[in-house]
Every structure is written in structure tokens, then in C-alpha cells.
């Protein structure tokens, strides 16, 4: 009898240890028993009935918010059209400083970024991009006659006394650093009109931005002119998604293709002064690999 009781106690302790091990494995999601999966972003959006998009401050004509809080500009209007194809019609914007857009997306403060964010290898390591939606090329705005004879970012870097303005966290900041422009030469500002003011008041000598920024500029000043930047390459932007949201991005791309095929894509870009033919031919994988 005593031996039988000992055997039963041993069996109970063994089963208890086994249950503990299985529970641990379930928590880890291993051992053949899958852990519960978090609901993906697209499913969450469809369940809640609205989508939140991040928009960079001062980025018109790429993206902005009007007085009624409605997203406007080429990028969000293209996103709105694509999301509509997906059955999502309630689009709620959050205006964010450019440098905080990707961190905010990764922190799940919004579901995607739609603001004319140019693709480059560094950003492509941090987020997933959609098919290209807007394309442009960088240009300078300088005083009439270009008195400092600035034609490239290397020209700016060669003159430490020269100050240049651009949007914070932008592609222009990156390529300026790559060209050797020092941090103390760069005066960044999120607002387009404020960047113009910096130039007009002499606080900076040159302003660099994509060509479409200048074509949409209000209060143009005849004392300044827009000139090409030597060595500037065509850059293209797309909507940005979290790395884990490939399902959402792929569904968005499929919807964006329908928008392109319908002609609405071209109408939106033309409305804001962007070349549609370049965006239609551009490839995300190539843009992410470009140096």
C-alpha cells in the first residue's frame, strides 16, 4: 500500500511539472502549441471603421491639412483614393514633425504615413513603402543672379559661411550631409513659408527642396530664382507602413494599382503639379536600393 501511494505521488508531481513546462512553452509560442497572434493592422482598421495617417508638417503640395482638418495634397489624396478602393472611407490625419514621422509610425500612433516621404535605403530598412506616388527633383532657390555662384551641395559645403535651409528630417538633410555640408550650416524649418522668410531676411543664403515645393509656393518673391542642382537625382515617395504590416501594404498596393488604371492617379498628380509618367514607371525596389 505504501509503495502504491508513493507511486501515485510521484505520478502527480510528474504531471504537475509537465503542465508547468507546457504552459511555459505556450507563453513562448513554441513546442508545437502556437501563441495567440495579435490582430493585424488592416483587420483592426476594418473593425474600428477608420484609418489614421501621419502627415509631415509644412509639406504642401505633398501633404497638408485644411482648415476643416481634412487631409489635402497629392500624397494623402492618392492614399484616400486607394483606401476607398479597400472599403475604408474615414481617413483621420495627424500632423507630425518630419523627424518624428517614422518613430511615430513604429510606435503605432497612426497606421501609415502619407506625406511625400522619399524612399532611400535607410528609410527602407525602417519601414515598408508602397508603390511610388509622387516624384520630383531637388532644386535651389537663391537670390536673383545667384551672387554666391552656388550650383551644388558640394559648393555649399566648400563655403562654411554659407547657410542653407530645408525641412527637418528630410531627404535633403541626408544628401546635404553626404555632400559634406556641416550641421551648423543647416537651418531647418517645417514650414514652407518660413523657409522662404529665412531666405528673404538673409538668415540663409540658399534653400533646397523638391521642385514641386517651389511650383506651389505662395507669395513668390521676384528677387529670388529657382535653379537646378548639379547632380540632383529624381526622387520618388510612397506611403510608409510598419515592417510587420506587409499584408496591409500589399492590399494597399493592389488598390493603388486600380487607382492608377482608372486615371484618378494622374488627375490628382496633375492637379498638384507632379509628373505622373515618372511615378507610373518608378519601382519601389529599385528606389530602395539606390544610393
From TrEMBL:
Keywords: Signal
Pfam families: SBP_bac_3 (PF00497)
Domain Solute-binding protein family 3/N-terminal: 50-276
GO aspect biological process, one term: ectoine transmembrane transport
A GO MF term: ectoine binding
PANTHER family to which the protein is assigned, alphabetical: ARGININE-BINDING EXTRACELLULAR PROTEIN ARTP (PTHR35936:SF17), MEMBRANE-BOUND LYTIC MUREIN TRANSGLYCOSYLASE F (PTHR35936)
Protein name as it appears in the record: Ectoine/hydroxyectoine ABC transporter substrate-binding protein EhuB
Lineage: Bacteria, Pseudomonadati, Pseudomonadota, Alphaproteobacteria, Rhodospirillales
Amino acid at each position: 500500500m505504501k509503495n502504491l501511494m508513493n507511486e501515485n505521488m510521484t505520478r502527480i508531481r510528474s504531471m504537475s511539472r509537465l503542465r508547468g513546462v507546457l504552459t511555459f512553452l505556450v507563453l513562448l509560442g513554441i513546442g508545437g502549441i502556437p501563441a495567440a497572434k495579435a490582430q493585424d493592422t488592416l483587420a483592426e482598421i476594418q473593425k474600428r471603421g477608420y484609418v489614421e495617417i501621419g502627415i509631415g508638417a509644412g509639406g504642401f503640395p505633398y501633404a497638408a491639412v485644411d482648415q476643416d482638418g481634412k487631409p489635402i495634397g497629392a500624397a494623402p489624396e492618392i492614399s484616400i483614393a486607394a483606401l476607398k478602393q479597400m472599403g475604408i472611407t474615414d481617413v483621420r490625419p495627424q500632423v507630425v514633425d518630419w523627424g518624428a514621422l517614422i518613430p511615430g509610425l513604429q510606435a503605432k500612433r497612426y497606421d501609415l504615413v502619407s506625406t511625400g516621404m522619399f524612399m532611400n535605403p535607410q528609410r527602407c530598412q525602417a519601414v515598408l513603402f508602397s508603390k511610388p506616388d509622387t516624384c520630383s527633383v531637388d532644386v535651389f532657390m537663391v537670390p536673383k543672379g545667384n551672387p554666391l555662384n552656388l550650383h551644388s551641395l558640394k559648393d555649399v559645403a566648400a563655403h562654411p559661411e554659407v547657410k542653407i535651409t530645408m525641412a527637418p528630417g528630410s531627404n535633403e538633410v541626408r544628401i546635404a550631409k553626404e555632400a559634406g555640408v556641416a550641421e551648423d550650416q543647416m537651418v531647418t524649418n517645417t514650414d514652407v513659408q518660413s523657409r522662404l522668410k529665412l531666405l528673404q531676411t538673409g538668415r540663409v543664403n540658399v534653400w533646397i527642396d523638391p521642385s514641386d515645393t517651389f511650383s506651389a509656393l505662395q507669395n513668390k518673391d521676384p528677387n529670388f530664382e529657382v535653379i537646378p542642382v548639379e547632380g540632383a537625382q529624381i526622387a520618388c515617395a510612397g506611403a510608409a507602413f510598419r515592417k510587420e504590416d506587409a499584408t496591409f501594404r500589399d492590399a494597399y498596393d493592389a488598390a493603388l494599382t486600380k487607382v492608377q488604371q482608372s486615371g484618378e492617379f494622374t488627375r490628382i498628380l496633375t492637379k498638384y503639379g507632379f509628373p505622373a509618367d515618372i511615378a507610373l514607371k518608378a519601382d519601389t525596389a529599385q528606389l530602395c536600393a539606390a544610393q
